[in-house]
Amino acid sequence: MTTNPIIAFKHVSKSFEDNGQLILRDINFELEAGKFYTLLGASGSGKSTILNIIAGLTDATTGDIYLDNERINDVPINQRDVHTVFQNYALLPHKNVFDNIAFPLKIRKVDKAQIEKRVLEALKMVRLTGFENRRIQKLSGGQRQRVAIARAIVNQPKVVLLDEPLSALDLKLRTEMQYELRALQQKLGITFVFVTHDQEEALAMSDWIFIINDGEIVQSGTPVDIYDEPINRFVANFIGESNIVSGIMIDDYLVEFNGKRFESVDGGMRKNEPVEVVIRPEDLRLTLPDEGKLIVKVQTQLFRGVHYEIIAVDELGQVGRLILVVVGSRHTHCTGRIANAWISAKLLGERLLQRLEICHRAMLQQPIGMEFFLGGFDDEVRRYLQLKEHARRNVAVVAVDEYCIDASNVLVTAA
Prior knowledge:
Elements: E1 7-15, E2 22-31, E3 36-41, H1 47-55, E4 62-67, E5 70-71, E6 82-85, H2 97-107, H3 112-125, H4 141-153, E7 159-163, H5 171-188, E8 191-196, H6 199-205, E9 208-213, E10 216-221, H7 223-228, H8 233-238, E11 243-251, E12 254-257, E13 260-263, E14 273-279, E15 284-287, E16 294-303, E17 307-314, E18 321-327, H9 340-365, H10 370-373, H11 377-398, E19 402-407, E20 411-414
Parallel strand pairs: 3-8, 3-9, 6-7, 7-8
Antiparallel strand pairs: 1-2, 1-4, 4-5, 9-10, 11-12, 11-14, 12-13, 14-20, 15-19, 16-17, 16-19, 17-18
């Protein structure tokens, strides 16, 4: 229970008036002031409806909504101390940047000098100083996003509501705006309530996440809690990639599937209880044949930049399809060619030979001070030998399309 919550929902439900379809089912939560909250769910889950009820854009069918301990069910939109940033930004195209940001202040009849001061401060916060007279049509998508955010914070509201404001941006700009939004929220200390269907956004930006499904809060917690301890199959599948297989809970922290036993991070279930085993891709690792517990056949792999994503299947059919993530590795090709690790070792070896030749020439010309010249050389030789040995050990696996894998950090949910 939060002491003096900034927002509270108590038994809030919402249904359509025409057909009685239930959109929200008995929603209860309390939000602490100054935190970044995310409502995460698929399209149609009810997350935007919660946001609209807070903003006053739609009414709850039953239940009570509180803003800073005041019941606001019947409070008009313009009297609620919240501001919404919409997905399409809702900027005024016929006004320039300054007038767009100043608009809510003018409605409240704020003094002209105070308006100018606060607009310029807001522009500085969103890194748009000097854009006061720019037309909205001349702005990029990211700049329009910043104008919408500046307009939201210029009123210094108690709560800022953000309805999927990053969805229209390209990947790189969206990532940049995630950092900026998070930094801005922490600087201002205003409560942000952010709606998204993007799990990566939610994990990266939030202090606390609410998982919404079919009008209900399925799970809430910190990003780490939700990722590491999904409450059921839906959450495990929705947050991150998951391999989910049937198993038996042998004992606390010990689960069995595919005829093998694995350490688990979960306990408190009945012995020999049927469970669903959740294995995150990053917790599966390639091993030497005598170290692995599962033999899988690689179907395909995708290069994701910093890692490879490998799709594999258990040929016995007991585990089925598995997703592995191999981070920072270039030896995961299974096309029968020499592993890329060999190539890396070869290139590094050639570079070492070149350096040895340079060192040899330098020693002939000026033998004094060579310790300085050779700084870090031993480390480079050591790295070469390690990489060469690493490649040698893995080529036997890479040359064929079978892998031995092992799992760690195995999660368990009730079947």
